[in-house]
Amino acid sequence: MISDDLLGSEAHWAFGTDFEDPLAGVDTTVPDDIDPAALARYCLMLGDDALVLSQRLSEWCSRAPDLEEDIALANIALDLLGEARLLLARAAVADPSVVPSLPDGSPVPAEDALAFFRSPAEFRNVTMTELPNGDFAETITRLLLFSVWRLAEFESLLTHPDAVLAAVAAKGRKELAYHRDFAARWFVTLARGTAESRRRVLTALAGLWAFWPELDAPADVEVVLDQVFAAADVSRPEVTPARGLGRECVHTEALTDLLAEMQSVARAHPRGLW
Amino acid sequence: MVTVLDRARAVAATVVDPELPMLTLADLGVLRDVEVSALGGVLVSITPTYSGCPAMATMRDDLVRTLRCEGFADVEVKIALQPAWTTDWITPAGRAALAEAGISPPGPAPRRDGPVLLSLGPVRRANRCPRCDSEDVELTSEFSSTACKALYRCRACLEPFDHVKEI
Questions:
Q1: Which of A91, B65, B102, B116 is deepest in the core (most CB within 10 A)?
Q2: What distance in Å separates residue A159's CA from the closest CA in chain B?
Q3: How far out from the chain centre does Cα B133 lie?
């Protein structure tokens, strides 16, 4: 037991990033013509996508093919984690009923409660983000599909009537442009590299393509993807779409495993301060 | 006459970035505004460089501590999300400080009027080696020691260096 004197008034919950509120001082009033519950649900979708993929990308830390890619994947994971934090915080303020209830006096901020104290059946991320990493080609292919779609989604949010969501999107799109181009360059490099690297990329694409329809991407997103495929001399795989129901909180077992690891320490020490 | 607001601004403008301590938060463009209420409370607005910038808490703590140390008892720090931070806000003094510290300063941020165009080729920048001033530099990675930097290598002096990437 650590004495209160030692912690002083500066103590923070041990598992957050310790800026008390990522939206401190931001006007979070939901505009009149927006349904707060729908806004919160949408922010959870985008936030959970980023949180879950960020966790997957972090698994590469110290395991990537070389140091530069290790650092790149960690940087991308950090950007996504930041987006997740803002979006989950936005969801929590828009509709506090989405936040899991914790005992009175809990030091856990709302966005951390959403990240660490929801069960898999409460997450709204698309299936693609939760699948295990596979090899480097699979990780790159997933990052390509995901960031091509997410960049376009964020661009469409720039004029969203909720100023907080529009601001998160305006910030995130600059980062996502770097993620997408990183993934696209690697996709082309691997597809036009050795017979083995090409085989791996084609295998990865064939596996992931079944989950593309779940993103529900508009036509202009497909145009960007086709540019990358053309440069890589790759055609769209002919595969039956998977029945991805991540938006409706139906997930694969992979999410259960991911969350078990991600949430274990916070759940073991829900009152942990430092 | 130096007003309380002038003094609060001047003090806030001395606080440095925790990861780039050769730059003040003002030079970095992270310090957006300083206001003083009728009762003397100071309200400082800062903006994150990147969504996941892990230095925000330290920036806030440093601002509060420095202002308190200079006699401002009531200090609050708020986040300004909009407009999003851009490297174009780094001041000329900040750019000079970066170069002096061996970090290549950013060029103009890309214009983002329409959709962000796909770029499959290597990124081209007119940057120079901050050590030997050679233009013969090559990009190693678009991601480096922090989210806001790319990694380069100078082909003349063979030293690696960081470049603050345009955003």
A1: A91
A2: 13
A3: 22
